[in-house]
Amino acid sequence: MNLFKLFQDIEAVDGDATERLGYYSRRSLLRLGSKALAVSAPTVMASVLNEAYAQSSSVQDVLNYALTLEYLEDDYYQKGNAAANLIPAADKAIFTQIGKHETAHVALLRGALGSAAVAKPAFKYPAATFTDYQTFLLLAQAFEDTGVRAYKGQAGNLLGMDVLTTALQIHSVEARHASEVRRLRGLRGWVSATDEAPAPVYAGEAVTSQAGVDLVALTGKSADRVREAFDEPLDRAAVLAIAQPYL
């Protein structure tokens, strides 16, 4: 779930987004009071966003863009979990839980948009996606690693906002999804090579400098080890290019 990118795009069409969302999130949580502890994060976030932006068509466009991406992930795991003889019994609980997480992300955005939410598209997937487990795992890895990279560099846009904690909680779960899927494929839990496939998902991961510092020279570690230590961001255009073949 790309909440960091979502709020960055919201700010692009509404310069007062940080102040507006900060105000509404505090007011909404105060109104919920102790009941907030019993409400899921998606429900709370949906309430905040809906109250703050119910009348903004431009922000609705941004939210519907995010919802379409979440529909894709949710649809993928629903189909995978329903496919006969696809997921081994030993792994079934893992994908059942990941599927529940993605369904919650869809619920968040649909709740925020209300009647303005776009309908779920009809998605298409490569042949053998739901009949061959290794194919299913490869595509799951692509979706999850894309989502994790899409978060990077966006935390600063939420500084001072009550929703930052919730966004970070969702982001960390998505990173755990990515690591677990990679483990199931027999890979390391982190991106470990510049030739990983599908190539667009890992474009730009060859960076060995951070904040202007050459970490290979500084640490004496190999370029591979330095690259592993950081996930690079994917911008909106790159994410759309990755998702487009499935729409």
Tally of individual domains: 2
Q: Which CATH architecture of the largest domain is right?
A: Up-down Bundle
Spatial order of the strands forming the largest sheet = 1-2
List SSEs in N-to-C order. HHHHHHHEEHHH
Distance between the termini: 18 Å
Helix content: 55-70%
- Strand content bin: under 5%
Low-confidence stretches: 23-42, 52-58
Structure, explained:
It holds the Pfam family Ferritin_2. InterPro entries: Ferritin-like_SF. This is Ferritin-like domain-containing protein. By secondary structure, this protein is mainly alpha-helical. It folds into two domains: 3-190 and 235-246, Ferritin; 197-230, no CATH class. It contains ten helices and two strands; from the N terminus they run H-H-H-H-H-H-H-E-E-H-H-H. It has helices spanning 3-13, 17-32, 41-53, 57-82, 89-113, 133-151, 163-184, 215-219, 223-228, 236-243; strands spanning 209-210, 213-214. The protein has a two-stranded antiparallel ribbon with strand order 1-2. Strand 1 (209-210) and strand 2 (213-214) form a beta hairpin. The protein is globular, with a radius of gyration of 19 Å. The model is unreliable at 23-42 and 52-58 (pLDDT under 50).
Short key terms for the protein model shown above:
two-stranded antiparallel sheet; Ferritin; mainly alpha; 247 residues; Ferritin-like_SF
